[in-house]
Amino acid sequence: MTSRMEKEDIWKKVLTLQRKRMAISLITASHLYKTELHRGINFFLPAFSRLWLEEEDVGQDQLIADICTGIEEEEGPRIEIIMEEGVPIVASSEEPKEKETNPDPLKQLIRCFQRAATSEETAASAIHEDSLYIRFADVMAKSIHIEEEDGDDGEEGEIDQAAKEEQTQALRGEQAVLASRGAAIMCLMYLSASGGEPNEMVAQTLQLGIHLLSGGNVEIQKMLIEYLQLKKDVRFFTSMAGLMNKCSVLNLEMFERQIKNVDAHGANALLLRHLSSKIRHRSRQDRQGAQAEGLGMGAELASGDNQNLNDADFTCSLFRFLQLTCEGHNLEFQNYLRTQPGHTTSVNLINCTVDYLLRLQESVMDFYWHYSSKEVIDEGGKEYFLRAIQVCSQVFNTLTESIQGPCVGNQMTLANSRLWDAINGFFFLFAHMMEKLYKNSTQLELLREFLNLQKDMIVLMLSMLEGNVLNGSIGKQMVDALVESQPSVEKILKFSDMFLKLKDLTTSQAFQDFDTNQDGWISPKEFQRAMESQKMYTVEDITYLMMCTDVNNDGKVDYMEFTERFHNPARDIGFNLAVLLVNLKEHITNDPRLEKIIEKAQTLLEYFDPFLGRIEIMGSSKRVEKIYFEIQESWLEQWGKQQIRDSKNSFLFNVLQDDGGDQGKLEAFINFCEDTIFEMQHAAAISSGDSDTKMERAIKQRDYFLQQTTASDQISETFKSGYNYGISAASALSPQNITTTIKNVTTSVRQMTWPQLLYSIIILIIRAGLAIGWGGYLLLMTIFRFAYFLTTSSEEEETAKNESGKEPPKMMNHDHATFSPPIVQEFHHSHVGVDAFGVGMNADHLNVNSLPDFVPPPRPETPETVLSEEEKPLNSEPQSPTSPTAASKAPSIYESIGAPQMVQLQSEADFQQGQYEPKIAESNSTKTKGSILNMLARNFKTIEKITLYLAFFVNVILLFHRVEITHTEAAEAASEGDDDEDAVESIIITGLQFPHMEYEITGWMLAQVLYWISVLHLTASFALLVSFYQLKIPLITFKREKEIARKLMFDGCWITEEDSEELGIVDTFMWYLDRIVISAKSFPMMYWDKFVRRKTRSKFKDQVDEETLTSILGEEKMSTDSSYDYRYSCWLWIGVIFTNGQFLYRVGYLLCSACGVFLSPFFYAFHLIDVVLSFPMLKAILQSVTHNLQQLILTIMMTLVVVYLYTVLAFNFFRKFYVQEGEDGEEPDRKCHNMLTCFIYHFYAGVRAGGGIGDELESPYGDDLEYIRMFFDISFFFFVIVILLAIMQGLIIDAFGELRDQQESATEKLESSCFICDIGKETFDRMPRGFEIHTTKEHNFANYLFFLQHLVNKDETEYTGQETYVREKYDNRDWDFFPVGECFVKQYEDQLLQS
């Protein structure tokens, strides 16, 4: 009894009365179905409204479109800010029309909100609680559809320019609907009226502003800056500064108190379960009172909504809004954020941002010191770190956007602020967190976010160096910061260097020898011995790497996964550091401190040197500036292909001979770059899935052994089956078995009756007919399929395939997901104060099934993920009480870094798993459309060589042909002595007898070999034509489309000018054909500027009426339009393919091969002409003949005229010398008694004869016309043989010499001067770096091409200031950004010589 009383006393001490009442109310709570119907409805509707309607898209975004329906909008009015009754409103600059229009309800609503925002201060406080504005601001934001930020760009991949432009145009239209009615100005007014106090109204206003400015809308930016300059209200800037001041940072003290409170709550929960059986008899009123009081037990901690980064989303929205005001390097807005001229008070928002960043960095450091002594960062700490990283990343991006361009004022402001203190702190944090997180695979998600944050910080530092000059002040301050953080920088460099070597280590043959099973798994001891044997690491490095390894249940290490896990992040951080150090190295001279850091990073710089592109441009300030960018490995691989090298050599040879000036050379260079970029992209597209890098081959080999467990058995069975079939076929064809089979068949036939024999014959004929018919059907289907591929766009096929292959995404399984009360409160405005079924709840306390699920995109199934519902584990270990509920889990580091990023959301059950299981990055094994055609295109050169070799073998066999003459006696012989016989000639193949050998190849065998080689050559010729179509026709089409697009957009061809009378028939036909294709819906198909017609329409709309433009340019193709474009197809085949000489040559090559198979094998003699085109030296000889082709043809025409004159003289005066006496009474042969015969004889015999026509005639001695005849012969010899034929030979020889001189001149010009800047070699000989470094590093020919490809592939919103400047010049066909006659070394020649 005493013990029981003691226990009850203990419970009374632990459990207060309020908590007992709460437990009773929770245990005996009545369910919804026990209440009355009307009360259930009243409970249900608020919860449904707040938790479902606000989360799901049920048509709120259509509300704005419905309101604006029927309102006529003016086309392109200029937006102005005017004052009406003291309220700035948006108005059109055009004069109002007399025609009355319907009122615009949306415009009236926004104007009403604007007046509310500008009310007196006494009523301004009501704005914060204006639920109507909050709801409408949310609806307006939803009406503008923007893409979610991925957060990590990863490697820049090629983007679909057409789809991107369509999305941009749609976004601009949605933004214009609101901006033209004053929504953007309304945002500024409400932010000014907020007074710097964060609340839901400010949050929704920021979201609306972000949606309006998304994508860098220049018109809205201009509208905002005009309003701020007109109103001169400092409240906006003071409010923004106040909001930054109110933004929270991490609070370690509050975090520790939350942990203690949650631990105590967990202990009390155990006692509550035991007590619940004893308090079921309490009254209903007591339970309800206990519930109301019990839910408030954590009110002290829950009240800090704006503390400990609970407002992380709000903070990110605030800085994102400021970033978007400067998006696109808006210099005016960048300067306005720093200083507001004309205002009573100037607020420097740049310094305010730096102050917040410094506060945030110090709070993150507090958390680091808290976890520095712990081995693993728990889930609670990881969540806070991730929130801090998210906010820091956004702050870095905002500062980066505020200085890019560059904005020199903001750069100097940051340089003179405490930014360097924050950067030094972050360097320390990155170095030590890398050391800590690399050791544990469960921390890789957090490590990935830290590496992304480090990348954002280095991008900010690089933006500080935009427009940097030699030995500039900002560069020197940055060096000081690096020197101050030198230990941390060296530690980061050490980690990068250590993990970069892993790829070369694990892919080496010596290392893979330790993997005896070739399955990708080795023991830790073998891994250590392998690293020691390579002698690439020190003992300390090997010890650290062994600490980072994970083993499976068998105690083995997956070294390929280990390499992928650590090499990719090391490459990311290493490349950004390499760019920063190279930039400082080339701009800061004579600084031994920097040289010491560069020396430590020498290995890193050498590793990234091939991938670090650098060029020089003439900047907007008319100074030479350096640009650094990343060169993709695939670009270097494609640049090294033989066809690209041939194109480069041909371009250099042609452009250096064409004296078109600097502008002409640069124009040709840009055209070459565009063609080469498209060719490289096309080659990469047809080579997709055929990558053969060292690492990928090793991974494929590892995956083969991991996934295909019975692959070796299957291969063995395949070989065994093939061997057995071969043995069976050989034995069946042996003479003995053939004889036995014939005897058996004969015996069976003899035993059959006549009906049975007839039935068997019919069955045999039917089966043979079916086999032949099936074979013919397959052949016809193959031909039709090929023709279909030739005439069908690959993009349309892929689109149709994707649309037909789409499956509805599957909902994530949350049936067994469990949650514990989180310690981190989410700042989500739709979940504030939710009353669900009469119980005050936070959304984080709800079961996941009560919330709408965000359906992620379906992922490819893997052996690990293909599990049935019964096989899936119900749940992993329950979540720790100290771990907060994360919204989403980012991809693991080796699944996301180094590859194009995708937003992935995982279930809470996956997030709650405490153990992290690393996997290899999944490879895309899907086949591309037309994989057979792509395979043929990839092997174009190989097929070309095969056809050449086969043609050579065929012509070798043709040498064994001879003519056999058979004699038949005449049926009507006059006498026995008559020897007249009819001779019949036939061509046969003789055999081949090898000397000193008894073996002989018969003519029949050679004939069979010749036939089958001919058939094989015909097949190879057809494959060669297909591969040429797949490989070369897209490039030819691209060039033609680019030519038409440039003429249309820049010259106004077909719009402002009519057909010229000077054009020939062919040119006129092509002119009209090009005009027809302009109006085709599919034009352009290959050229990357898909909206050239839209731009042309906008450019010439003031010069040409709309009807004429529509008739010429046609209508835009709708995305849903899948009809066949016959106009484009006709232009493609008639105007591009059938007019291309190379394609016609391949067609003729195929026809000759077909004639060789079906008509005569001697057609294969023409295929030997391909030898001339296959070897460059022979091609040069042929070019020497065609170089002066016009002069050569004119000389031949002159020869014909001279020969004709001599023919006239001979016909009239010397006919008797052309008579040759016949034999045995035959009539004489008179060569010159017919004018045509006489002319042919003079040209045939006279020109070929060494001494002229006189060598072919009778001697004139003793004739009456002796001297006249001598003069005739000598003059013919002199004019025709000596002069005219010598002129022909001289033209060919001179052309050969001229081509050789041009080649030598081009080579000498390239070796003696720079192609880009055209500065001579002698100028660089007196410089420290020299001419070779200048042409290979600073003005590398290929780097300018790679930079243009970098601009084409990169999103325009991600451009730096220098990239934006170059892109604008390029779009306007202005080549002033090329540093012609200038370079960085020459610009700072005096300073460099002094150093």
UniProtKB/TrEMBL annotation:
Pfam families registered for this protein in UniProt: EF-hand_7 (PF13499), Ion_trans (PF00520), RIH_assoc (PF08454), RR_TM4-6 (PF06459)
Membrane topology note: Multi-pass membrane protein
Keyword list, A-Z: Calcium, Membrane, Transmembrane, Transmembrane helix
Protein name (Swiss-Prot/TrEMBL): EF-hand domain-containing protein
Record GO cellular component, one term: sarcoplasmic reticulum membrane
Region span, Disordered: 796-817, 850-890
Membrane-spanning ranges: 757-780, 946-963, 1009-1031, 1147-1169, 1189-1214, 1274-1293
MF annotations from Gene Ontology: calcium ion binding; ryanodine-sensitive calcium-release channel activity
Lineage, uppermost ranks: Eukaryota, Metazoa, Ecdysozoa, Nematoda, Chromadorea
Residue spans of biased composition, Basic and acidic residues class: 799-817
Polar residues: compositionally biased ranges: 876-886
Subcellular location: Membrane
Coiled coil: none
Keyword Transmembrane helix: yes
Domain EF-hand: 502-537
GO biological process, one term: striated muscle contraction
